[in-house]
Amino acid sequence: MVGQHPLRDKIIASICEMDMRMHDVFLPENGVFENAYKEVWLGKLGEFFKACKLKGDTSLSVRSSQCLEDLVCDCKLKVWVFEAPLTMNGIAISIMMDGDEITGIERCYANHLIGQDIINTGEMLAFEGFTVYDNEKIGFIDSLEFKQLRKKVKVFFADISNPKRNFVGPLWIKRKMSVYNHLFFDVLEEPYQFEYKDDMLKLYV
Q1: Is 81 helix (H, G, I), strand (E, B) or coil?
Q2: How far is Cα 192 from Cα 187, in angstroms, rounded to an integer?
Q3: pLDDT tens for each residue of 98-118
Q4: How buried is 150 (Cβ within 10 angstroms: 0-12 exposed, 13-18 middle, 19+ buried)?
Q5: How far is the CA of 30 from the CAs of 47, 92, 102, 117, in angstroms?
Q6: Mean per-residue pLDDT, 139-164
Q7: pTM, to two decimals
Q8: Phi, psi at 73, each rounded to 5°
């Protein structure tokens, strides 16, 4: 890894060291990062680093790997798998280059080949790492259906978290479960990066 592409190596090192300042300096201003602008990527990565540090992680391990094409991902790219040992999550990325120039970063969600073993470090880790949602990506067009679904989910969460409610009876619970079930499957049918999908999944679990 070291010495082949000095700039790429510095970007990898900045992620391993969870150094946002260094990471910001080495990324191009006009690059595309998981189909989003640089400031979105930096914000998400910074939140991830903060969560890792709260768990006691001071650095991330890294290893090079190869995307194994499957139903989740077919990028087939060489990837770098970063893991936080105490937090027990991480991300897998490919650093996109044009010659010696960095052009962006893409996430990989597939299984990865580590030596002779297949390690499920893509989707499993990325779910706990961080998500760049569709509405944060370049060129996102907010449809009427998307707005309506977002509004319904917001109303649902506001209702079930209302601190002023003194009593919740069986009928209320049954009614809310029915609402949730309909919303849950509506959300699942939306693109993978719908901004409330993780919240709905966590509530389901």
Answers
A1: strand
A2: 9
A3: 888 899 999 887 665 555 555
A4: middle
A5: 22, 22, 10, 37
A6: 76
A7: 0.70
A8: -150, 145
